[in-house]
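Amino acids appear as letters; backbone shape is given numerically. Here is one record.
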Amino acid sequence: MKRAAAPKTARRVFPIPLWGYITNHPGVCRLAAIFVLTGRVNLLLRTITGLVVMVSALASPATADTIDLSSRGSFIFSHGQEMIVRFSVWNYGFNNPGASPYPTSIGLELVGITPLDQPVSTMPGSSSQYFPGYVLQGTLESLDGTASAPLLGLGGGPLVVTPSTLYGSGGSSSVAAIDANAALTLNLSQQIFGPDITSPQSSALIVLQNLGSDLVIGMGGGMSLRNAITEPSVTGLGNVQTSGITHGVTLLNVPEPRTTLTLVLALSCGVLLARRRDTRR
């Protein structure tokens, strides 16, 4: 016996308005759906294109604000900022004739105003005290940035702020101090200081970034930053220890990545809302 063919299930077609009339013709409905889908795809492509353009513009390196602090007595070193100290060690070779003019150890010392009402803590495994919440990161670099060495703090750890005493002609005063050291091989020292190390015009850079709370560098009151930021211990293969000569201090206001990300998200929301309004018209 021949079985009867199963009845075909009719496709559900939604009636759509067309030039003031209501139609449910399948061909017209499919054509209208294609037009709607194409419009949505174009809208999505325009939105993505706009976001790509904005993100590309925001991803380009932002120009940091540069402030020359060389003539100041003190300044507030805020979180996220970078300080660049330009200095030379030409006098090391001058005072060590016959030995290599390239040092193998560079010391750094900064002094500033003691944080108010800030308790001190004891470093683990040591009797040294420090102010918690204050930490820096530093490197010793060549002028072109192609060679560098890390600056290490007490016990080879991070750069922390410690209580100290500053002695002068007017007596002594309590200060906040940062001590660091960079150990170099002769080869790395040559890369950092270059071939003209014995010239007074030669120099290298110390780059410090504040990763902790704001702190005041320098004491003011007639004491310049060049006296508050020193390289008191320059040693090498020679017998004489010398001090570096600070030439200048520069502050960089580095934009935080969170600011850029927030701006991208805000602009993205703005574009999406604008596109949504266009679709409702």
